[in-house]
Amino acid sequence: MAGQIYHFPSKGACYKRRRVRVLILLLLLGACYGFIHSPFFRLEDIEFEGNRHVSCQELLGLMGVEKGINIWRIDTGLVCQRLGAHPLIEKVQVRRCWPGKLLVQVKERTPMALLYCQGKFWVLDREGVVMFSRDKLGNLSLPLITGCDPGPIGPGYRIEDEGIRAALKVI
After folding, report:
1. Which residues have C-beta within 8 Å of that of residue 154, sequence separation ≥ 6?
2. Which residue of 89, 108, 126, 133 lies most exposed, with the fewest beta carbons within 10 A?
3. Which residues, at least 6 apart from 10, have a Cβ–Cβ distance to it below 8 Å?
4. Cα 60 from chain centroid?
């Protein structure tokens, strides 16, 4: 349509719209921040799955996480690392379950053999990790490895002796 004139909005109107947009954005960011840090995300429950030999209390102590903390502030990788340091735990997974629950799935090591050295019976898993020791054999019915000296040994140690590793592969 010929002859029509278009009027551009004034600079004042553009600045006013921009200020309104920035204000709305800041309000949304503030609301999100307030919601994330609200009591809605407070850790109320920690559920453990797969632990048979390690007690829930012991796992709680290892985690270093207390109920009531904001679930967003929990470093799940660090919690996995702390729990994985326990000699009876092979693998662990920690997940947040919204809004206020933490699910800890534990896979415990499985005893595969007994190693007799230094006057004790050391229980090993399939990877050669020492789980715990016993002074007497008791009711453990596992294959017995003797005649090897792995050097320093204790719960959580990984046996690197070739003879012991070969015996574990056969078992």
Report:
1. 130
2. 126
3. none
4. 12
Half-sphere exposure of 81 (CA within 13 A, CB side): 5
Q: Is 164:145 a contact under the CB 8 Å cutoff?
A: yes
CB atoms within 10 A of CB 108: 18
123 neighbors 88 (Cβ within 8 angstroms) = no
> How many residues are recorded in the chain?
171
Closest CA to 117 of 159, 62, 54: 159
Q: What would the pLDDT profile of 44-96 be if each residue is shown by its tens digit?
A: 999 999 999 999 999 999 999 988 898 988 999 999 999 999 999 999 999 99
Q: For residue 53, how many other CB atoms are within 10 A of its CB?
A: 13
Is the Cβ–Cβ distance between 98 and 130 less than 8 Å? no
Phi, psi of 16 (to 5 degrees): -65, -45
Buried-state track 76-86, b at ≥16 Cβ within 10 A, e below 16: beebbebbeeb
Angle, CA of 18, 19 and 21, to the nearest 5°? 65
C-alpha 87/C-alpha 37 separation (Å) is 36
What is the spatial distance between Cα 97 and Cα 46, in angstroms, rounded to a whole number?
Answer: 10
With beta carbons less than 8 A apart as the criterion, state whether 112 and 142 touch.
yes
| Interatomic CA distance for residues 94 and 36, integer angstroms | 20
